[in-house]
From TrEMBL, chain A:
GO cellular-component term (any): endosome membrane
E.C. number(s) listed in UniProt: 3.6.5.2
Region (Disordered): 193-212
Protein's name in the database: Ras-related protein Rab-15
Compositional bias (Polar residues): 201-212
Originating gene: RAB15
Alphabetical keyword list: Cell membrane, GTP-binding, Hydrolase, Lipoprotein, Magnesium, Membrane, Metal-binding, Methylation, Nucleotide-binding, Prenylation, Protein transport, Transport
Subcellular location(s) of the protein: Cell membrane
Entry-linked Gene3D superfamilies: P-loop containing nucleotide triphosphate hydrolases
From TrEMBL, chain B:
Keyword Phosphoprotein found: no
Keywords for this protein: Guanine-nucleotide releasing factor
Domain N-terminal Ras-GEF: 56-182
Coiled-coil region: none
Protein name: Ral guanine nucleotide dissociation stimulator like 3
Cellular component GO terms, alphabetical: plasma membrane
InterPro entries (alphabetical): RA_dom, Ras-like_GEF, Ras-like_Gua-exchang_fac_N, Ras_G-nucl-exch_fac_CS, Ras_GEF_dom_sf, RASGEF_cat_dom, RASGEF_cat_dom_sf, Ubiquitin-like_domsf
Protein's UniProt keywords contain Amino-acid biosynthesis: no
Name of the coding gene: RGL3
Organism per entry: Vombatus ursinus
Record's compositionally biased regions (Polar residues): 519-530
Length: 212, 655
């Protein structure tokens, strides 16, 4: 199955462990992974192509869940990401407090111009809520980010937030791209690329629901 | 009729058949082609024929807990050999150990004596399950102080199979736990005592640092081997159950705090190694680039040696430290690294490329694992097995992420509230690999070298912020050296974008040939304008060596050249061999430095004129700094750190 896309972006999910980063990812990609690959190349459901403003954007999502405590590992991904989800759990005040630390890491390690978006996950757990919606909004305002409350369980704002971040990345790079076209007159038409069947594109388990 | 053997293999030995539901339990059914046992007693000419029969193999896929526990003792473990190990390794994710025991062990503690003569086959299976459980997951039974589960198992086994191997194992384990606790108590007391002493000592003189050899003073082999000794020890003690996504990924929650200590310990060791690399590379702000490059080279060689020792944990730790921002951005130092180590560094870094979901490191690990089995298997009987290298020790993080992903992707329960045991089987596939690697690790026989270990543990960790500040003092952000790898690599915006847009594959190659294996798409301007990090933890600052704190305060980002450095001054007749750290600026002359050192050394009525300042050089040489010289410029930058004060001959004042 050949896949076509115009542009590839790398997005990164960061935040404390247990805030549901992998759940978001898994919900977004409809659990698109081949169970047979698990033992050989690990679980990999990190690619998805979406269309934004008529542009087919292939997004590769990095999730280092499980490796948050390795101090140098996650940061290696920062430098190559174009967009970053900062995720906290609305039922954990602590995970919200830690967003500051994650933002400072991003400021330090990610390239300038990286697009960020704040996510308050587990919005379905209203009865356990420790972080108000307004608190999330305010934090997002302070850092100049967009904000979404999401729930992987009820599928709330999953697609919206991924699409939004992709839009932001696209906008940021479109500017560069337009400028480039004007100045360099280089043949840089968004490449129509053929992609060989990617290993990550499974169909077998796609009907499965994400369990969170 | 003879068939070529290849044709036999062309048929898949296993075939998925479907699902079956029996009494509320769901089974996976596969068809397996097996060699059948020939019924005839004498192997006649028909031995040329290969007989096959097709077996229907049922494997429990989902069921209620009672049914799963029953399967432990009643299941056909030949047909489904993974069931028991998968259940034992993962059960804590869906049922506490004491519940399993509650279902497993009969209410009557044991069969009546006459029952012992002809043990019910169920009992035999039960005893064998308990035996594997005790051996493979002893930590499941640790529940201090009373260890009620273990006591229960002991009691059962002592009646059901007195004197048996399982019973002995249970007794041994109980004794072991009890001894361990006693030791721990003693250790705790000692640690508390030590801490108190240290605190008192610290109050007296905050800058006391016992001088010992630095880790990099030891040989490449020694350092790599000792890192491997530590990694091996910790990795072999990892409890499989703690790696499960449902356990490990919730470690930071209130309920899960303190969970997964054995996994935490490996991560802490990994971080200690990276920290060690950082602090040893970021020493002496005034150190000229060739000397710092030498330190980088030494770490590259240590990494290479770790690779040879098949220690992928420390290998990755060292590489990730070298690739971390504070070290990676030291363009001048990197520019001075020789070609050979640089090429080794690139090759090693390539192992951990994230392309195709870390396919490279996964494959290399598999190959390393396989290299151990094949020679042994192929060796003819009687011929001593070839000597094969021990290990490999894996980087655990990849497994942890896989397990978190699995845990997220697969539901714990299926329709009808059945436990999804298929999920546990998938988890067990990964856990059994870890277990396999753990067993391989036992074959390392590296001697422990306490002085190297002491030097490793003596390394003061730097906080992220400190590392970064130090890095910026060493090479201020504005400075850009034309020969640096980054600049050499810096490609125009046009090229970067076109590269970005025309990546042929989903997994775009991020490393151009000839690049330093580190992310390249970063624009160079990002480096120059790094914001002051927010939210530095107080604890990090407190843990910082005092001299770093003072250095960090005096060095501002954007400073053109490093005009300050920290030196360590000791006094020749000091029995404790202690030194004081002094911040040296380009304005400091000998008398001022000597006076400050004497004051810091708490000498009463210090007489700077009575002392001479010597810089300690490699090879037991010393450089006398002339009395009125500017110390900053007079000192040899090659080994800038250490100075000693010696009393001039004929000086009057008391020491």
């Amino acid at each position: 199955m050949a896949k076509q896309y115009d542009v590839l972006f790398r997005l990164l999910l960061i935040g404390d462990s247990g805030v549901g980063k992998t759940c978001l990812l898994c919900r977004f990609t409809d659990n698109e992974f081949h169970s047979s690959h698990i033992s050989t190349i690990g679980v990999d459901f990190k690619m998805k192509t979406i269309e934004v403003d008529g542009i087919k954007v292939r997004i590769q999502i990095w999730d280092t869940a499980g490796q948050e405590r390795y101090q140098t590992i996650t940061k290696q991904y920062y430098r190559r990401a174009q967009g970053i989800f900062l995720v906290y759990d609305i039922s954990s005040e602590r995970s919200y407090q830690h967003i500051m630390k994650w933002v400072s890491d991003v400021d330090e390690y990610a390239p300038e111009g990286v697009q960020k978006i704040l996510i308050g996950n587990k919005a379905d757990e209203e009865q356990k809520r420790q972080v108000g919606r307004e608190q999330g909004q305010q934090l997002a305002r302070e850092y100049g980010m967009d904000f979404f409350e999401t729930s992987a369980c009820t599928n709330l704002n999953i697609k919206e937030s991924f699409t939004r971040l992709t839009e932001l990345v696209l906008q940021a790079h479109k500017k560069e791209l337009d400028g480039l076209r004007a100045h360099a007159r280089e043949e840089l038409a968004l490449a129509e690329l053929e992609e060989k069947d990617s290993k990550t594109e499974g169909t077998g388990n796609s009907s499965k629901n994400c369990w969170c | 009729m003879e068939r070529p053997p290849g044709k036999e293999l062309a048929l898949a030995p296993l075939q998925e058949w479907g699902e079956e539901e029996v009494d509320g339990a769901v089974y996976n059914v596969t068809l397996r082609r097996q060699h059948s046992q020939r019924p005839g007693p004498d192997p006649g000419p028909s031995a040329d024929f290969v007989h096959y029969r097709t077996c229907k193999v049922r494997a429990l896929r989902a069921a209620r807990i009672e049914r799963l526990v029953l399967e432990l003792v009643q299941g056909d473990h030949e047909q489904d050999p993974a069931f028991v190990p998968a259940f034992l390794a993962t059960h804590r994710a869906f049922i506490p150990t004491d519940h399993v025991l509650g279902l497993l062990l009969p209410l009557r503690q044991a069969p009546r004596p006459q029952g012992l003569v002809r043990l019910h086959s169920g009992y035999r299976a039960l005893i064998s399950v308990l035996g594997s459980w005790l051996l493979d997951h002893p930590q499941d039974f640790k529940d201090p102080p009373a260890h009620p589960n273990l006591v229960r198992v002991c009691t059962f086994l002592s009646v059901a199979a007195p004197g048996g191997a399982e019973s002995q194992e249970a007794e041994r384990l109980l004794k072991h736990f009890q001894e361990e606790e006693e030791e721990e108590e003693e250790e705790e007391e000692e640690v508390a005592k030590k801490l108190q002493e240290e605190e008192e000592g610290a109050k007296e003189e905050e800058e006391h640092v016992k001088e010992g050899p630095e880790l990099l003073d030891f040989s490449v082999d020694e350092v790599a081997e000792q890192l491997t000794v530590m990694d091996m020890e910790l990795f072999s003690q990892v409890c499989l159950g703690e790696c499960l996504g449902s356990v490990w990924s919730h470690r930071d929650k209130a309920v899960g705090r303190g969970t997964a200590p054995s996994v935490r310990a490996t991560v802490a060791q990994f971080n200690a190694v990276t920290s060690c690399v950082l602090s040893s590379v970021l020493v002496g702000p005034g150190l000229p680039p060739p000397y710092r490059a030498h330190r980088l080279e030494k770490w590259i060689f240590i990494a290479q040696r770790c690779r040879e020792l098949r220690n992928f944990s420390s290998l990755r730790a060292i590489l990730s430290a070298l690739q971390s921002n504070p070290v990676y951005r030291l363009k001048r130092s990197w520019a001075a690294v020789s070609r050979e180590p640089l090429s080794i560094y690139r090759k090693l870094s390539n192992i951990f490329s994230d392309e195709n979901n870390h396919l490279n490191s996964r494959e290399i690990l598999s190959q390393e694992e396989a290299s151990l089995t094949s020679p042994e298997e192929e060796t003819a009987p009687g011929v001593p097995p070839l000597k094969v290298p021990p290990g490999p020790i894996p980087y655990l993080g990849t497994f942890l992420t896989d397990l978190v992903m699995l845990d997220t992707a697969l539901p714990d329960r299926l329709e009808g509230d059945l436990i999804n045991f298929e999920k546990r089987r998938k988890e067990w596939e990964i856990l059994s690999r870890i277990q396999h690697l753990q067993r391989r690790c036992m074959s390392y026989s590296l001697p422990s070298r306490p002085p190297v270990l002491a030097a490793f543990h003596a390394q003061r960790p730097l906080s992220e912020e400190q590392s970064y500040r130090l890095s910026r003092v060493i090479e201020p952000p504005a400075a850009s050296c034309p020969s640096s790898p980054r600049i050499r690599r810096r490609i125009s915006l046009t090229k970067r974008l076109s590269a970005k847009l025309s990546r042929e594959r989903g997994f775009s190659p991020s490393h151009q040939p000839g690049d330093l294996p580190s992310p390249t798409v970063t624009s160079s301007s990002a480096q120059g304008t790094v914001e002051q990090p927010l939210g530095t933890k107080v604890s990090e600052l407190r843990a910082a060596p005092a001299f770093l704190g003072s250095l960090a305060q005096t060095s501002h980002p954007g400073q053109r050249t490093p005009d300050a450095c920290v030196i360590r001054v000791s006094i020749d007749h000091d029995p404790g061999n202690l030194y004081r750290s002094i911040l040296l600026t380009s304005q400091d002359k000998v008398p001022g430095v000597v006076l400050r050192a004497l004051q810091k050394l708490h000498l009463e009525q210090p007489q700077p004129r009575d002392y001479q300042l010597f810089q300690v050089l490699p090879g037991d040489r010393e450089l006398l700094i002339p009395d009125n010289a500017n110390v900053f410029y007079a000192m040899s930058p090659a080994s800038p750190g250490d100075f000693v004060l010696r009393k001039k001959e004929g000086a009057q004042s008391p020491p």
